[in-house]
Automatic annotation (TrEMBL), chains A, B:
Name under which the protein is recorded: Ribosyldihydronicotinamide dehydrogenase [quinone]
Protein family: Belongs to the NAD(P)H dehydrogenase (quinone) family.
Origin species: Sapayoa aenigma (broad-billed sapayoa)
Flavodoxin-like fold domain: residues covered: 3-208
GO cellular component term of the entry, any: cytosol
Amino acid sequence: PGKKVLIVYAHQEPKSFNGSLLKIAVEELTKQGCRVTVSDLYAMQFEPRATRNDIVGHLHNSEEFNYATETWEAYKRGGLSKDLVEEQKKVQEADLLIFQFPLFWFSMPAILKGWMDRVLVQGFAYDLSKSYDGGLLQDKLSLFSFTTGGTKEKYATRGDVRYLLWPMQHGIMHFCGVKVLEPHVCYAPKHVSEEKRKEMLTAWTQRLKTIWKEEPINCSPEWYFK
Amino acid sequence: PGKKVLIVYAHQEPKSFNGSLLKIAVEELTKQGCRVTVSDLYAMQFEPRATRNDIVGHLHNSEEFNYATETWEAYKRGGLSKDLVEEQKKVQEADLLIFQFPLFWFSMPAILKGWMDRVLVQGFAYDLSKSYDGGLLQDKLSLFSFTTGGTKEKYATRGDVRYLLWPMQHGIMHFCGVKVLEPHVCYAPKHVSEEKRKEMLTAWTQRLKTIWKEEPINCSPEWYFK
């Protein structure tokens, strides 16, 4: 109650299963008295490409463009493009970040990866010696909620689904100091019965009811690779 | 000699270290008599977002947009957008795919992830029961060549760099039936001496001289997680 949640959502179709998971989350969290903000990336036509356009005004080094350096410098002088500033404001205010997306190639869709690449710049999300447990986005929680095309069994035959969470959970969120809650995976919603799909939606609502009591995972290699 | 190579390149700045690695690869492979094609994603302003625009003409199901289904159907009837058809042609012709990029957040920059998301559609790169060793892009090799911001030591303290290669090498290339050569990692070129940088460039040329004699890795969990 009173908590702020940012849901970064990456699906093109409101009628999709991801769309339903988003709707449910907004409803349940709002009912709890949370303030929920949604970044609907496709609807916003969010730009995923990291380019010179992200810097307003002069470059620090116009002879040789380096994105990391330029966005860091631009951040410090308040010279990042408007869309990035807005997303950073949402992140700054949030107690919990939920990423809702369909798994594309063992990872996020490019539009969501672009959100990570462009929003979490040096100076804002981390700094020279401020990373991992010292990252700049401490006291925040994150949760990766995604659907897969393949079944749970199919993933299990080729290793663990946790393997693919390493770059996202550890490499991004943990690096910025954000704590990570257990991921929420809905396996192959397209290939199960309508009844099973309803069960999956109910399970998501149920989980969200006690989300604020959850303990973050221990985001170290042991959790991922045992 | 006579081999065809596609280099998919994702850096904004030709003068960058990635730009040098690209230049060197084009020179060395051309010298060997290979036919080299480069997809310079930023220069092409390559679109990373997976949207309805990738399908020319009518949708299979316009009531509820599903990207995977629509691109699959569009591929079968020759209805994918021109930029995708062109990239697929390049992939089809290539014996070796080299991905050259700076590591962004333990993964590819969004513009390159978008290339994977949009180019490697069902029907073209894989199909219902045609994946992994049965994938549709067999008899091809791939190589991930990237630079990092952090030093080798920094990566080593938090697990192995191989962990982050799982989604890219196994989840994408292996899934499509493409064999994977050892990755080529240049650690922290921004933070080493000019001499060390030159050594790294020379090492890349040297490696490419015998690239056609290399054996692919065994792309199973053991390689990544021991």
